[in-house]
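INPUT
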Amino acid sequence: MTEAPAGEVAEFSLVELQQAARNHGMPLEALRYELTPVGLHYLLIHYDIPAVDPASWRLEVGGEVARPLSLTLDDLRARPVRHVTVTMECAGNGRARMERRPLSQPWLHEAVGTARWGGVPLADLLTDAGVGERARELVFTGLDRGLEGGEEQEFERSLPVEEALAQDVLLAYEINDQPLPPQHGFPLRLVVPGWYGMTNVKWLSRITAVADPFSGYQHRRAYRFWLDEDDEGRPLGRMQPRALMVPPGVPEFPSRRRLLPQGPTLLEGRAWSGFAEIAEVEVSDDGGENWRAADLDPPISPWAWRGWRYEWKPPGEGTYELRCRATDAAGNEQPDEPAWNVGGYANNAVQRLSVTVAG
Amino acid sequence: MTEAPAGEVAEFSLVELQQAARNHGMPLEALRYELTPVGLHYLLIHYDIPAVDPASWRLEVGGEVARPLSLTLDDLRARPVRHVTVTMECAGNGRARMERRPLSQPWLHEAVGTARWGGVPLADLLTDAGVGERARELVFTGLDRGLEGGEEQEFERSLPVEEALAQDVLLAYEINDQPLPPQHGFPLRLVVPGWYGMTNVKWLSRITAVADPFSGYQHRRAYRFWLDEDDEGRPLGRMQPRALMVPPGVPEFPSRRRLLPQGPTLLEGRAWSGFAEIAEVEVSDDGGENWRAADLDPPISPWAWRGWRYEWKPPGEGTYELRCRATDAAGNEQPDEPAWNVGGYANNAVQRLSVTVAG
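OUTPUT
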């Protein structure tokens, strides 16, 4: 058996493997693509992918609204379309690097992807429905059903009304200019730029304007950031900054150790934050002692990752621990070590990658 | 921590999780699709997905041939196209259910998918090249590179000449009528209907006719069926029969336990074999004591899975172990328990699924 490197979590359970076998990460070499090809974008299917008949499917908009709506997919397609390029990351990305983590999807670093979503601006639809003055939040209900914490439920999350009215929030029926495939929420999903994936409800069937703060399971218990069991916690929201690099050289099978020849190597990757534009990406080749600034590509969208590159000249043969880290324009940074929390969420500790330079 | 059911492997290593995070299984509810949507088909990326520039890419055909070829993607697209619908399964499917398995990709059941591949019949190209009388095998070389068993290598597998000349063997540049995406082998891959995935070389760059049996790493050591370390073994080839079912009811998160209401439930799924048509699928609801025949759908292709369905009437509330198993027309069956082998390959033991019927 190959030993886990010092400081690494070494063992995972069958329940975690069952999740990992279902849910799809983005292999990190796919950081080379500005838009993630369909099939490489990360996927977290919380329960099962539901079978949806587009002929009978409707989007219902109700609750505290003046004019409830019931819309077919054709109704939505007949409205003006908007396209937004968005980097989306699972709130559980990095969980597998945490000790004492809960049984859930054990992501390492790869729960991310960037897509060009096409659909109807949510604000336009809400204007048509006439959201009432009493409404404080909008609850988004998907068709995916399961049992969790003893409650049988449909997957549901809410957004404050003012967040829902932001102009780039979409009800998307296209990804990368193709119809949504089943696994990304066919026929319709919510896309909230800058927010972790759990907010971007897939297989959307109902939008309900509510006067009281939503207290469904996925807000109250799951997808909540708690420092300990006594902490009141808060629902997860925007993505913390993170930089990732394309692993350089070639991999060893099955260890995924990296090997590269001597000589200059272009290190490259992408970085994002849900709070502000990426302001800086730095690279270290000595385990975090010294850091050098990488060159940044121009932004491709206010909501998408930003490319970076750094020409690395390894001092000689040997094994190096490469790291990369991002800072956003609001001053948010990445920690060196995971910040523990009950749900194992939002672990944006810097990526560490061991590479061996030889011959 | 949730306990693993009796008889289940309970712990997995970081190396296995790293593989599981990269490689994509097909969530079993996607058995509902006759053709697996792109993005849900299983993927085993042995090393890294290579970056291929289609403008400079060539397919080279050489070795023991009268007329070596060097073809562009346009050259291939200009030839008559053939479409074949093929079920493809990883030879390592089921490995995670074996004890004393090697460190590799820990598939449970989900390493499968069915696609409509489009491309050039390999036999036509080989006719143009004029395979020499001395040639015994064709070696297929991909652009994916890595280190394995101490050898730096490109992924390579061979086929006997007579297998390569079968009319449905394709050099595919399309999947489900779309251009191949990077992760499925863009710009060109081999598709050998009926064979486990390792034969279907992706990112194909070279076909070499050879006079001696190929002894590359992926034949000699990996992807080989050995009963023990002293066994000479044999390269893996055709897919053993297997039936899988869509898990009925709804899942619990994160355990994936299934819950369903009382009353009749349609159990359905698909079954395949690389040796012959599926002749029978049977279902058990008592852990394999009694078996009932399922109804079979008409075949959709000589090389694709066959749908099956069975109306199950649970005798009452309680927890049941459902199983399904397939037999092919050549008499190949599925064992009840994994048949151990060094590489953890071809484990087609029957699927077992625990479901709880309540209220």
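end of record. Chain A touches chain B through 64 residues (CB under 8 Å).
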